Amino acid sequence: MAVKPFSMVLAEEGKPMRRAHDRSRGFTLIELLVVIAIIGLLAAILVPAIMGALANAKHARAMRQVSDLDGAIRLYLREYGKMPAPAGDIGGPDKLYEGAEQAAIVEILINSTDDAKLNPREIVFLDLDPNAFGVKTIEEMKGLLRSGAPYKDPWGQDYGILLDLNFSEDIVVGGVAGGIRAKVGVYSLGPTNKGYTVETTPFKTW
Fold first, then answer.
1. Mean pLDDT of 71-79
2. What's the rounded Cα separation, in Å, for the pair 130 and 74?
3. Rounded Cα distance, 8 and 20, in Å
4. Strand pairing of 160-163 and 184-187?
5. pLDDT tens across 39-58, in order?
6. How many other C-beta atoms are found inside a 10 Å radius of the C-beta of residue 198?
7. What are the backbone angles phi and psi of residue 187, rounded to the nearest 5°?
8. In degrees rounded to 5, what are phi and psi of residue 127?
């Protein structure tokens, strides 16, 4: 006698046949809304924290870089008894260096200048990472400096260098009311949306 499949026996007895996939169901609309709400809540908590951490990292990098640049200039001054500036500037009015003029000073400090008289002992006073210029090699970085591309802060603005060229123990230049009591001053204007000036920026070495 042929044996009937179990499903046929259940059907003949009037009992509904339950399939395996009937026991598994998808998410309900309410469950999906709960998941979306949780994700949104986590994003609201994490995104500001991440953005704050990134901002803090830029702040720390800017302060480290202005300090390194200031220190390199002071080491040059101690070594040669003069500022790392073109000979024609020495002894003249105090000056703010930005743009291509700032790049020329950085060239001297990293021992990449074409004028051997500006760093005759070929000392590397400033060790720069080419990544700061958006390139991978030191030669590419030197090429950018040679073309007049200045050293920029994490927000894409030029670092400013203030030099006491007449050795009066203070720096008096336009944009800095009353001058500053220092031989060297290096600064970053920080995030562009803050509207900092040379006087108000917190990213400076004096």
1. 98
2. 22
3. 16
4. antiparallel
5. 988 888 888 878 788 889 99
6. 18
7. -150, 160
8. -100, 105
